[in-house]
Amino acid sequence: MDGSFVSATSLTKRFGDHKAIDDVSLTVSKGEVISIIGPSGAGKSTFIRCINLLEVPDSGSLRISDAQIDFGSGRPSKPKIRNVREYTGMVFQSFNLFPHFTALKNVALPQMRVHRRSRAEAEARAMEELTRVGLENKAHAYPAQCSGGQQQRIAIARALAMDPELMLFDEPTSGLDPEIGAEILQVMRKLAADNMTMLVVTHEMEFARHVSNQVAVMVDGAIIEQGSPEQIMTNPEHVRTQKFLSAVLGR
Ligand SMILES: Nc1ncnc2c1ncn2[C@@H]1O[C@H](COP(=O)(O)OP(=O)(O)OP(=O)(O)O)[C@@H](O)[C@H]1O
Q1: How far apart are the C-alpha atoms of 200 and 94, rounded to whole Å?
Q2: What is the ipTM of this complex?
Q3: 20 in ligand 1 pocket by Cβ < 6 Å?
Q4: What is the CATH number of the domain that holds 240?
């Protein structure tokens, strides 16, 4: 073991003839925040989905803490998948809340199902996490009574209540107005300050620059460059990184 908390090695995932990710390796240390940036279609979502096995890589290996999986011989067993998922929480662009349950119940239910917590215990924990994301006053509201930003914060609380050691974010602010996106980024900053280990696919260059410890640039299914935010943002080595940053930052 290399001392890292997450170690993805040579992950490859094809969809038909198309290699969405090709020989991608990345390590994440405990408490580290890594942003993955890059153009649309580069494979960023596919990569992060491979980390909690929403997509099963065709080859390579993945270790999260002491849970290790080698790919290439079909779908991993359910206990192995469960083992990896126990460590991870994921937040998507779409919030995927149950519309007919309150915020409190949305956050409590997965804990009752997966961790077998009692209703009282799960609701107490749900309240803690709703408070952490600033939504204690929305605990009894239904998703339709909440703004997009509030719904995303409920989704974050739901993930946190499962006690993950690694939080995966897949463009959590896409599709939200900038000021609402800023609410989400604020919650993520707070998590980073609390030393949560995070892997974040983002188009928010400000977040990548000011909150991450490392930025990885993905183009055509490969990580072409990785380094400190300062290095990547101000002095990128790779011409594809330079082009991408010029396009998004307009410089
Ligand atoms: N389930 C799937 N079936 C077929 N092709 C897929 C699937 N998921 C992703 N792809 C393809 O894999 C490639 C990488 O997609 P992916 O969503 O990972 O890119 P991305 O970098 O996250 O893009 P964006 O920033 O637009 O979300 C794309 O060409 C996409 O069309």
Answers
A1: 15
A2: 0.95
A3: yes
A4: 3.40.50.300
